[in-house]
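Re: that chain you flagged

S.,

Sorry for the slow reply, it's been a week of failed gels. I finally had a moment to sit down with the sequence you sent. For the record, here it is as I used it:
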Amino acid sequence: MRYYRFYKAAVRLLPCFRKSKGAITRVLNRHRVKCGAVCLFDETGVTGFASVGYTGDRQPVKMDTCFRTASVAKMVSAMLAWHLAQQGKLFLDRDAGDMLGVPLRNPAFPDQVITPRMLLCHTSSLWDAPAFWQGAAQGKTLDEVLKADVFLSRQPGTQFQYSNFGAGILGAVLEAVSGKGLDELLRENFPGMSENGASFFPQNLSSEAVLASCDQLLPPKRTYDAKQLRSRAKEADTAAPLRHYAVSHGNLCISAEDLALIGRDAMLGYEELRKAHIPFGARDPHITEGLGMFIIRDAELSDAVIYGHQGLAYGAVNGVFFDPVQKKGFVLLTGGASLARRYVLADLNRDLIRLLLGGKTKGNRV
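Prediction finished late last night. Pasting the structure tokens below so you have them in one place:
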């Protein structure tokens, strides 16, 4: 570990990285990042870091500053699912309802099972119904929420419909089949994380961890205050699948450094998650869904196929993207930024992919 820290410090002194750091900072500033971090990685680990702004308590953003990841958590959850599948605890093509112990069937197709694979690639026919968000806010259990109108009138497994609810149910399945809480699974399967750690519950972060607040730019407002999130009663680190159905879709809090190490793991393995399952369709003609992972083929960004996941919520723009052939990637975590986008990918993520993975800079602006 001592030599690894020295290696990271040495890399940041290299002239080539100093040039890249300035270009990254210009991209962040142009997209009005309130506070944020970009962490570069290759097969050896973290290779560079750039940041702008301050956290809610006026601390400069550092490599170990934690952020809420939004939907980037879906990729991390998919990696946890793959670990459990390899251990013979999770079966991707069996009835997820049987694993949960509650019926999980679309009323229009009562004989069609809904599998973890469908939850992972957003073909379960579940949608982000008001009953999902309201039920989670009111503390309702999953079996209660599933009685509401939460299914689309389409056969499970046939059509893409991005679903936070489906991704949240996946986390409940992971807890059910493992008998462990999501945070315990996180620690077990990614043991190289820093002492500050990471958590699917902001209030469970270590007391030493700094969590950034988040602001929405238009109209300007604070969408969440880190101190308020962390003042909540701590969540027991135990399996509670019927209550934890609105966690794994986007609630992970983690530092750019730790997320970069997870991104490196995704780049060096997890090939099954990178296999194409279903296109985004009109939502984005350049993206195909793997298992909890985007597959991006966009010649405007890169000649290579780029993998990863975006997080776009509560005013933040986040992302983990990598090229497994060149073996390099980056993490973006912010506490507020411009949400401008073309199709699915935010313009901020598009510019960073061009700069760091594609070598293509639109209009030479970066």
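What I noticed first: The two ends are 34 Å apart (CA to CA).

Talk soon,
D.
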